[in-house]
Design a protein that fits this description.
heterodimer; A: eight-stranded parallel β-barrel; two-stranded antiparallel sheet; 15 helices; B: alpha/beta; TIM Barrel; five-stranded parallel sheet; three-stranded parallel sheet; 10 strands
Chain lengths: ~375, ~260
C-alpha cells in the first residue's frame, strides 16, 4: 500500500459535482463533529464553506492552542547549492535558466551557519537543487556534520532519496524532511516537469513515506499552490498527511502551504489562490488534522502572515533568503522572491506582541 | 496535620506538579509557579535552549523547585535513556519523567518501552517517574523495576477531558504500592480535586494552566482544588465500593418475610 493507492480511489471521483452539491447544512454538520472524515474535509474546502470561515477560524484557533499552545517554532532555510538538472517550469533553479550557479564550500557553510546561529535560531532547513553530480549525498552528509555544531535540528529539502539514503542522513544527524509533491494531479505534474529525474511522479510521491520508514523524526509535505485547482490539491495534501500520520504514528507530520512566487523565468500561476482561499485551506487542514504542524513561510507577506498566525500555524521561517550564500557577501539569484523580509529579531518581536512565544529549540540531537 | 508526599527521598508539601509547555511567554512561568505552590516542575529537554540564557526555560524556575525533565520526543526506550542522560549532564538533577510516545495523533504512551527505559534509568541512579497508560500489569512491572511513582493519564495530553480513565486509575490507586500521580487530561480544578479525592498522590497539570485566559489565577485555583481534594480523601468520605454490588441479589429470598 502506498499513498498512490489512496489517490487512485479518487481518480474518478466527481469533484466538481460533489463540491457544487455541498450545502450549508453539510458544512454545519461537519463543523459540529469532533473528528472529521475525508468528506468533511472536502466540504470545508468547498465554496459553500466561505460564509463559515469565521466559525472555522474560531475552532481552528482553539484546537491549535490546545494542541500546541501559544508557541511558534522558528527556523530558516540555508541554500547549499542551486545546481539543478531538472526543468520545472515554475522554478528559478530550472536548468535552462541563465543564473549564476554556486555550491557552498565547507568554509562557506560554516560561515553561513555562524551568521544564522548568531540570530538565535537553532533549527535549520538545508536546500539544494537536484544534481546528484554537484551535490551528491556525501556532500550533504559532510555539510550536516558541520551544521550539527551550530544547530539542534537539521531538516533537508533536497531531491528525493531512497529509504537507505534517508537512513544514511538520519544517522548523520538529519531529523526532518521537507518534500513537496508540487502538484498531485499526475497530468499537470508531467506537463510542468519538462525534463529531468523529477519527472518520476511516483518516486517523489512515495519519498515522504520512505523517510518515515527510515525513522526520520519529522516529515513535512505540501503542494505548490497555483499549479492546479487548489481545492483538489489541498484535499490531496491533507489526505497524504493523514495517510502518513495514520501509518507512521511516531513521525511528526506537518504540512506547508506554499503559494507560487515570482522567480527567474516568469512562469505565471495557472490557478490563482487568493488570500481568502489560502485561509480556507489553512482552516480546513487544521480542523481535519488537529495534531499536524502547519508551516507558513516567507513566501507570504508580513502583514498576511501576522493575520494567519492564530488560525492554526505552528511553524514560521524568519530571516529567510533563497539564494546560495545568502548570509555571505556574495549571493546568487534566489529560487523565488521573498515576500516577508523581516529579521529573526523582528519576527520575534511581532510574536511576543501578539501573545505568542517564539520557540527556537524543539529538538535535541541524540 | 503532617501530610507529606515522599518521592525519591524528598518530602513534598505540594501535591500539584506543573509543566512549562504551551505558555505564551517564559516570563509568566515564575508567577504561575508561585501561584500554584508547586515544588516539582516538568520541562521537555527537547525545548530547553541551553545556548540562550534569556530563552532557557530553566532560568525561569525557582531554584527551590525540583526539576522534572521529561523525555518528550523519545520514540523508544533508548532515546528516552539518552535524553535523560543529557538532562542530568546539563545539571537538571536526577529526577526524570519518562515519556515514550510512539503515537503522534493521540500522544498515548508506549508502556512497554517505558518499562524498559525505567529499568535502565533506575539502575543508573535516576528517580524515575514514568508517564503511562493506566494498566495495572504495567504499573506492577514499573514497581518491580524501581520506578518512584507511576503517572497514568486521565485523558490524552492536552485534551482537558478530565478523568476519562477513572476506573483504571482507581484500580492503580488500590493495587499499586507506588504513589499514583495523575498526569495529562486534567482540564479543570474540579477534575484535579476528584483525582485527589479518589486517593491519587498528586496530579500534574500543564495545558489547562498554560492555555487558560489567566494562567496565574488558574494555577492558584488548581492549588486550592488539589488541597481540597486531598483533605477530602484524608477526612474519610463515605465508603467507596471496590467491588460491584449485584443489582439483583441472588440471596434475597433468604430475607423474604412470611414463608412457611
Amino acid at each position: 500500500m502506498s499513498f498512490a493507492d489512496k489517490l487512485l480511489k479518487y481518480q474518478d471521483f466527481p469533484f466538481a459535482s460533489y463540491l457544487a452539491g455541498v450545502t450549508g447544512a453539510d458544512i454545519e454538520r461537519t463543523l459540529a463533529k469532533e473528528y472529521l472524515v475525508e468528506r468533511d474535509f472536502l466540504n470545508l474546502l468547498s465554496e459553500q464553506a466561505v460564509p463559515y470561515l469565521e466559525i472555522m477560524a474560531q475552532k481552528a484557533h482553539q484546537l491549535t492552542v490546545q494542541n500546541f499552545g501559544r508557541v511558534i517554532l522558528l527556523y530558516t532555510p540555508l541554500y547549499l547549492a542551486n545546481y539543478c538538472v531538472n526543468q520545472c517550469a515554475y522554478c528559478g533553479f530550472n536548468v535552462t535558466n541563465k543564473i549564476t550557479r554556486k555550491k557552498l564550500t565547507l568554509e562557506e557553510v560554516e560561515k553561513e551557519a555562524l551568521a544564522i546561529a548568531q540570530t538565535g535560531l537553532r533549527h535549520i532547513l538545508i536546500l539544494t537543487g537536484e544534481s546528484r553530480f554537484q551535490t551528491p549525498l556525501s556532500y550533504i552528509e559532510t555539510c550536516v556534520r558541520v551544521l550539527k555544531k551550530y544547530f539542534d535540528s537539521i531538516s533537508i529539502e533536497i531531491y528525493p532519496l531512497t529509504e537507505e539514503e534517508y537512513g544514511q542522513l538520519t544517522a548523520a544527524g538529519v531529523d526532518g524532511l521537507t518534500l513537496y509533491q508540487e502538484v498531485y494531479d499526475p497530468v499537470t505534474y508531467d506537463a510542468i516537469h519538462l525534463a529531468g529525474p523529477k519527472k518520476d511522479y511516483r518516486f517523489r510521491l512515495d519519498a515522504p513515506e520512505r523517510a518515515c520508514r527510515a525513522r526520520m523524526r519529522a516529515v513535512n509535505i505540501g503542494a505548490l499552490l497555483g499549479l492546479q485547482d487548489w481545492r483538489k490539491e489541498a484535499f490531496f495534501t491533507g489526505l497524504h498527511a493523514a495517510y502518513l500520520q495514520d501509518k507512521y504514528l511516531d513521525t511528526e507530520i506537518s504540512v506547508s502551504l506554499p503559494r507560487l512566487r515570482p522567480h527567474v523565468g516568469n512562469f505565471a500561476p495557472c490557478f490563482v489562490v487568493s488570500d481568502r482561499d489560502l485561509v480556507q485551506i489553512l482552516l480546513a487542514l487544521r480542523l481535519f488534522l488537529p495534531r499536524a504542524g502547519i508551516t507558513i513561510s516567507t513566501r507570504e507577506r508580513a502583514e498576511f502572515r501576522d493575520n494567519l498566525l492564530p488560525l492554526g500555524v505552528t511553524k514560521m521561517s524568519a530571516g529567510s533568503c533563497t539564494a546560495v550564500g545568502g548570509h555571505l557577501e556574495e549571493a546568487t539569484e534566489g529560487q523565488f522572491v521573498i515576500a516577508d523580509e523581516r529579521s529573526v529579531r523582528e519576527i520575534h518581536a511581532m510574536l511576543v506582541s501578539r501573545g505568542y512565544q517564539p520557540l527556537y529549540k524543539d529538538w535535541h540531537q541524540l | 496535620m503532617e501530610d507529606k508526599l515522599l518521592i525519591g527521598g524528598q518530602e513534598l508539601e505540594s501535591r500539584l506538579f506543573i509543566g512549562t509547555g504551551k505558555f505564551s511567554s517564559h516570563e509568566i512561568i515564575p508567577k504561575v509557579i508561585a501561584a500554584s505552590g508547586s515544588q516539582v516542575i516538568t520541562m521537555a529537554i527537547r525545548r530547553v535552549n541551553f545556548f540562550n540564557e534569556q530563552d532557557n526555560v530553566l532560568n525561569y524556575i525557582d531554584k527551590k523547585c525540583i526539576l522534572l525533565p521529561n523525555t518528550s520526543g523519545a520514540r523508544n526506550a533508548e532515546e528516552a535513556v539518552r535524553i535523560a542522560r543529557i538532562a542530568r549532564e546539563a545539571g537538571c538533577g536526577n529526577w526524570v519523567k519518562i515519556e515514550v510516545i510512539t503515537d503522534n495523533k493521540y500522544l498515548l504512551p508506549d508502556n512497554y518501552e517505558t518499562i524498559r527505559a525505567t529499568e535502565i534509568l533506575v539502575k543508573e541512579g535516576f528517580v524515575v517517574l514514568p508517564y503511562m497508560s493506566p494498566d495495572l500489569m504495567a504499573a506492577k512491572r514499573l514497581e518491580e523495576v524501581g520506578a518512584a511513582a507511576v503517572m497514568p493519564l486521565g485523558a490524552p495530553i492536552g485534551t482537558n477531558r478530565g478523568l476519562m480513565t477513572r476506573e483504571l486509575i482507581r484500580i492503580l490507586i488500590a493495587e499499586s504500592k507506588l504513589p499514583v500521580i495523575v498526569d495529562a487530561g486534567i482540564g479543570r480544578p474540579s477534575q484535579a480535586a476528584e483525582a485527589m479525592e479518589m486517593g491519587a498522590a498528586a496530579v500534574l497539570v500543564n495545558t489547562a494552566i498554560a492555555t487558560a485566559q489567566d494562567p496565574v489565577q488558574t494555577a492558584r485555583a488548581f492549588c486550592l482544588a488539589v488541597r481540597a481534594g486531598r483533605m477530602a480523601f484524608l477526612s474519610g468520605p463515605g465508603a467507596v465500593q471496590e467491588y460491584a454490588v449485584a443489582s439483583s441479589p441472588l440471596t434475597g429470598f433468604l430475607h423474604k418475610q412470611g414463608g412457611e
